[in-house]
Design a protein that fits this description.
Chain A: This is SAC3/GANP/Nin1/mts3/eIF-3 p25 family-domain-containing protein. Chain A: One of its GO terms (cellular component) is nucleus. The complex is a heterodimer of chains A (about 500) and B (about 425). With about 500 residues, chain A is mainly α. Chain A has helices at about 5-10, 65-75, 85-100, 115-130, 135-140, 145-150, 155-170, 175-180, 180-185, 195-210, 225-230, 260-280, 280-295, 305-320, 320-335, 345-360, 360-370, 375, 380-390, 395-405, 410-430, 440-445, 450-460, 485-500, and strands spanning about 435-440, 465-470, 475-485. In chain A, helix 12 (about 260-280) runs antiparallel to helix 13 (about 280-295), helix 16 (about 345-360) runs antiparallel to helix 17 and helix 21 (about 410-430) runs antiparallel to helix 24 (about 485-500). With about 425 residues, chain B is mainly alpha-helical. The chains are: A mainly alpha (about 500), B mainly alpha (about 425). The interface between A and B is large, with 52 and 53 residues.
Chain lengths: ~500, ~425
């Protein structure tokens, strides 16, 4: 298994597989240096008609540089059978071009993208080409400094020149229609011989530029910001104002409307202050969303990002906005897993409580599986786990004790399912206790703040008729009683309803 | 070299799908010589020559079929070659991504190309269903290679996505089988459940169990001309029942879970203890939920692994020893969570509690009126455990809450009178199903 493939050991003996490659040295002209024409598809000059590329007779005997041999070997090492033909043709063209332009020995074959790569890029490129016809007019004649970057491969510069004669012969055939609008638009008068070659070459050229990771091909017709997010370079904002309204982007962001990190840091301080002072949730939520958006479009991921999401999540929890909370939570999960630090334990605890709210048992199992022994000793997580096991055991007594004693924002999260659990508990109590029970007891057991609140809850669920005032010996009211028997059905139904519609907004 | 081709020719001529399947298994050790029999430049020519004029091509499928076979054998050779010759180091694969892949990663790339070629044979070249074993072997190995490739990537700290890719492949193969409209006797539909089994396995491994439901739904939607499940090979049936049972189990639909798991257990080969153990791992908790019955010790003697997994927790449920129950649950927590049975077993506590309360009832001479405090003291002991420890006081409200839960769930019959602090139990069958 470890033996190197024999054909590889021989080192480039694989040349035999492309015997059809004939070196052609008829094309005059030196290896280009820096300057070149970028008129890829300029109107056809009448010159050099004799230099039809790639088909010229080969020089009788040629030697190949070793790097080229290796390049060929690499090419065939990983060719899928269905691609083989295309790859061969492509390889042939590359090598022929290299000979034509006399750069076979100077070219860095090690860095040359493989024919497969070029083909793949070409195909992708073809698809792209079909959409923006604007490219045609804009790219040609572009002699701006960015365009110079095209010329990293001397091959492609040279080719661009030799291209001109080909362009002359392109036509508005179906093929060009599909693949090369530019050629069609600019040379409607041309004949139809080398059209195939042309578009191939065009594509190849494009592929090379892409292959080299250069940005310059981005058509100027698109705005500059689009270019920024397309590439590896993240956008950096230039907006200096602290506040910004959230607007859901439908196109590429404009750097003028995006705030850079140092501004965002100040923004966060401002928002924290405003939240303390004004408590205006709709304003604060909107501001946080735009803050998050600015972070996202600039690809900013660090502990500050974590902080922003954590604060927004907490504020959302405080206001019971679980949809927004869940968005933050899912982002936080990713950020933590990428190694950024914040209050991971606290948010793990929230996650457990949130899963209780959504009754998501499958995910709960995953969360439990991922908890470490250290996690389990953390106060918030321990609390959340106890809540979970109390609910699992149907121990409402313990559940409501834990509800009243929830650390950090856990109580807010529990608010969202406490009403539901009260109904479940009442269904249970009503079935088990006879003939009636004290309202006081319900208030205590179900974590109500007062008897009034408890009575209100019962009334809201349509059990008002079952509450009665009992009088002591001298007609002094002694206690308020709740008749259990008839209430069973009411709370069974209420419970079923409550568990049916679980809020799964933005469920992750 | 010639052995491979002569076998291939002979199997193709005699329409021996099973033998072809094992011949085209890239991990078959006989492939060593085949791997070295040719090279990347001449393999296609060699295969073309070796395969020319096989009789089965003549009667029926012709050129198209032959081309497909040449493609399949060539790309199979690529796989074998990668396995035999690829050294174990990491190398840049020239697929344009420029990514470094390890040994299995490269093997996987070849394997996935091979699988695609095989599927093309079915789609474009009219392969009949006797060739399904070739597809099975391809899919099975594809999944294996993906898992190994992922392990390899993880070991060097890279992201592992090959298994996800394999799942996509398998899903395509699933559709390939399911959507075949050829007459039943030659339909690829007969391959459906094998692929489904692999697909389920893969989704479980990927922790994407929700995706299984799509498969089940797709199966349910094509009932019209799909042969009934029990006409498929038993091995396919067992796998299918097992996974559907587990899916129901995870959705807390214990009745259906039990039904499917039981079917799987009945059909399972008597000697495959490992599979039986897997089935029972879910069947035991499901049965506990539906009938409150515990497995016998006889069962455990046959399956030592299940004994390890369930015996302690089962005995604590039986005796109603809550402290020991909690301890058993905690001790095995990791394993239970990993097998996704923790949350179900945790509910066994109800049964343990019921058994404890039942003992209180029996000790009290089966009187129908029992003070809540009796239960509270029993609970205090049960929580503290046998070997002393501090007896923990349980709040009266909490014990009432637990009693109410028992009554609500139908494990006890009766009611609580809060005024008198009494539990009033039913005259007959106060603890349904337990004989008292």
């Amino acid at each position: 298994m470890t033996a190197p493939p024999p054909w590889r050991a021989v080192g480039g003996s694989g040349n035999s597989s492309y015997t059809a490659v004939d070196a052609r040295r008829t094309l005059g002209g030196s290896v280009p240096t820096g300057g070149f024409s970028t008129n890829q598809t300029s109107p056809p000059p009448a010159s050099a008609p004799a230099t039809a590329p790639a088909t010229a007779p080969g020089a009788p005997r040629t030697t190949f540089p070793d790097p080229l041999k290796q390049y060929v070997a690499r090419t065939f090492e990983d060719v899928l059978p269905e691609d083989k033909k295309d790859v061969e043709t492509e390889l042939k063209r590359i090598i022929t071009d290299a000979f034509n332009e006399r750069v076979v020995w100077s070219l860095d074959w090690d860095k040359m993208p493989l024919p497969q790569t070029i083909l793949a890029k070409k195909r992708a490129q073809m698809k792209q080409e079909m959409t923006p016809p604007a490219m045609a007019s804009t790219t040609s004649g572009d002699t701006s400094p960015t365009a110079k970057a095209f010329g990293k491969f001397s091959i492609s510069d040279k080719k661009r020149k030799s291209e001109d004669d080909n362009t002359a012969s392109s036509s508005a055939t179906k093929f060009s229609d599909r693949f090369d609008k530019r050629a069609r638009q600019q040379s409607p008068y041309s004949s139809s011989t080398a059209i195939d070659k042309l578009s191939q070459r065009e594509k190849e050229k494009r592929a090379r530029r892409f292959g080299d990771g250069l940005q310059s091909v981005t058509p100027p017709s698109r705005n500059t910001s689009a270019m920024d997010i397309d590439g590896d370079q993240p956008l950096v904002g230039r907006c200096m104002s602290l506040e910004k309204k959230y607007f859901r982007l439908t196109s590429a962001p404009d750097p003028d409307n995006v705030r850079p990190l140092h501004v965002l840091e100040k923004t966060l301080e401002l928002l924290k202050k405003k939240w303390r002072e004004e408590q205006n949730y709709s304003y604060i939520c909107d501001q946080f969303k735009s803050l998050r958006q600015d972070l996202t479009v600039q690809h900013i991921k660090n502990n500050f990002t974590v902080l922003v999401y954590e604060i927004h999540a907490r504020i959302a929890l405080e206001k019971g906005d679980l949809g927004e909370y869940n968005q933050c939570q899912s982002q936080l999960a990713t950020l933590y897993s990428e190694g950024f630090t914040g209050h991971e334990e606290e948010f793990k605890a929230y996650r457990i409580l949130y899963l209780l709210h959504t009754c998501n048992r499958a995910d709960m199992n995953e969360v439990l599986a991922l908890l470490t022994p250290v996690d389990k000793t953390h106060q918030s997580i321990r609390h959340a786990l106890e809540v979970r096991s109390a609910l699992a055991a149907g121990n409402y007594h313990k559940f409501f004790r834990l509800y009243l004693d929830a650390p950090s924002m856990g109580g807010y999260l529990m608010d969202s399912f406490v009403a539901r659990e009260r109904m479940a508990a009442l269904a249970c109590i009503c079935k088990a206790y006879r003939p009636d029970i004290d309202i006081r007891f319900l208030t205590e057991e179900l974590g109500f703040e007062s008897d009034t609140e408890c009575v209100q809850f019962l009334c809201d669920n349509g059990a008002a008729d079952l509450i009665e005032q009992k009088s002591g010996d001298k007609g002094v009211p002694s206690s308020i009683r709740f008749q259990t028997l008839k209430a069973v059905r009411i709370f069974e139904e209420a419970k079923a309803r409550a568990f049916k519609k679980v809020d799964i907004k933005g469920q992750m | 070299m010639s052995i491979f081709y002569s076998s291939l020719r002979s199997y193709l001529t005699h329409l021996d799908g099973r033998a072809l399947g094992s011949l085209l298994n890239p991990t078959n050790p006989d492939n060593h010589s085949f791997a070295y029999s040719s090279n990347h430049y001449s393999i296609r020519k060699t295969v073309e020559k070796e395969l020319s004029g096989i009789s089965s091509f003549r009667n029926g499928i012709t050129d198209r079929g032959q081309r497909a076979w040449v493609d399949v054998v060539v790309s199979f050779w690529e796989v074998v070659c990668e396995l035999e010759r690829g050294n174990t180091g990491r190398a840049v694969v020239d697929d344009g991504s420029g990514l470094e892949l390890g040994y299995w990663g490269r093997a996987y790339t070849k394997m996935s190309a091979y699988t695609t070629t095989v599927s093309r044979g079915f789609i474009n070249s009219g392969w009949q269903n006797w060739l399904l074993p070739v597809l099975y072997e391809a899919c099975r190995n594809l999944r294996d290679f993906a898992i190994r490739a992922d392990e390899e990537e993880k070991s060097v700290g890279k992201s592992a996505d090959k298994l996800e890719d394999a799942a996509r492949h398998l899903n395509k193969m699933f559709t390939l089988c399911l959507s075949d409209r050829a007459p039943l006797e030659e339909s690829r539909k007969w391959g459906t459940y094998y692929i489904v089994g692999l697909l389920f396995k893969t989704y479980f491994k990927l922790n994407a169990i929700t995706l299984c439901k799509n498969v089940v739904r797709a199966l349910g939607a094509t009932t019209t001309d799909m042969p009934p499940l029990d006409t498929f090979p038993k091995s396919h049936q067992v796998t299918f029942h097992y996974y559907v049972g587990v899916i129901h189990f995870l959705e807390e639909d214990y009745v259906n879970a039990e039904m499917h798991l039981n079917a799987a257990l009945q059909l399972c080969q008597s000697g495959s203890y490992k599979n039986q153990e897997l089935i029972l791992t879910y069947l035991i908790p499901a049965h506990l939920m539906t009938t409150h019955q515990l497995p016998t010790n006889t069962l455990f003697t046959n399956y030592p692994r299940l004994k390890h997994l369930f015996q302690s927790i089962c005995s604590t449920i039986k005796t109603g020893n809550l402290q020991a129950f909690d301890q058993a649950l905690e001790e095995n927590e990791d394993e239970y969570v990993r097998r996704r049975i923790y949350l179900t077993l945790e509910r066994g506590r109800d049964i343990a509690l019921r058994n404890l309360f039942r003992r209180v009832f029996v000790i009290n001479g089966k009187k129908t009126r029992i003070p809540v405090d009796d239960f509270r003291r029993a609970m205090g002991f049960a929580i503290a455990g046998k070997n002393g420890g501090t007896r923990k006081e349980v709040e009266p409200e909490e014990i009432e809450c637990l009693l109410a839960g028992m009554i609500y769930k139908g494990l006890m019959r009766g009611y609580i009178s809060r005024e008198k602090s009494m539990v009033v139990l039913s005259n007959k069958e106060a603890f349904p199903g337990t004989g008292v």
